[in-house]
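Appendix B, example 12.
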Amino acid sequence: MAKTEAVVHVINGRQKKLVHGHPWIYGNEIERVEGDPADGELVEAVDFRGRFLGRGIYNSHSLLTVRLLTHDGTEVTEELIRERVKNACRMRKTVLARPGTDSCRLIYGEADLLPGVICDRFGGTVVLQILTLGMEKYTDVIADALMDCEQPECLYLKNDDRIRQKEGMDCFVRVIRGNLPETVIVTENGIRMKVDIEGGQKTGSFLDQKANHLYVRQFSKDARVLDCFSYSGGFALNAAYAGAREVRAVDISEGAVRLIAENAVLNGLTVEPILANCFDFLREQVRLGEQYDVIILDPPAFTKAHANMENACRGYKEIALSAMRLLPAGGILATHSCSYHMPEETFLNTVYSAAQDLHRTVQLLDLRRQDMDHPVLAGYPESHYLKSVWLRMLDGPASR
């Protein structure tokens, strides 16, 4: 095994997760560093006894000081990176083989053994983000592999996420290959949706809820449906497509509300877009005595740190309480958390506690997660971030 220039010694007790496949070494987990590695260089990681743990990328600017690329003696080469991109793309062929779907996540960072590399396909446009310093030097290798595998009409590098600044990198965007279309329209489960590549969140849109969007259809025929934190209207559009008698989609963003309206027109569907703070809107609906048959709650992450768990639980519980007050017996609540800091069990118990406070009896119909193009890597629990809880109300709400 060839030696790298520097060796990172991990504090005793912190090596177990790495042995089990976890890719991160935090700065406070490092006892000492042999050598003087430059940021972005490869280092070896060893335990307190000097036993090899892996090889990864060093960055003193990041709390995640080392991101492991291998846990064995495999050398990190351009060919290794190229092959990992190709492996990731091959797995996604299963998702793209679904009828009426031409968009998916092609690379999901550490879960595809490519730390900090995110890549999404939106029809003929592929959007690439590289969020870690050590992987940036492989940009051309990754881009060439994507062109070989996917042959997109446009490959767009969207390196504008502020995470890059924390890694000591500049933010910028550029077209690598082809031309970025003025309008990008994808098909998801037979529904056409506009994607705002340049101005939209993350790579332009969220692709992790595709299977859950489809799942809501079975509850929606002839139902009155409320979709909160709707963004581009994925749940609302699928409910309308399935024959809901009324669909309302609420979001605090003017751009999102416009997108919902445009997507409804694009598909010839009737959806009422509503510009409002979802917390306030839900409370007002309770005050007005409204009722819905199906309510979907898909908020942004309420916590991006474990220390904020208590506040996050309060937020999830508050919206669950309001939603349950709006659902009759037989009503369906689908509520979500997209924060990996929120454990599944904690989230589920938070939702259950809302039902208990209201003296509602509920059935857990399903406990789902992100779509399969966002795979969960064994030994890396952070890759399981999306929790999707589907409940059925067995009794009616207590009198208001």
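The chain has three domains: 7-70, 78-185, 208-393. The chain has a mean pLDDT of 94.
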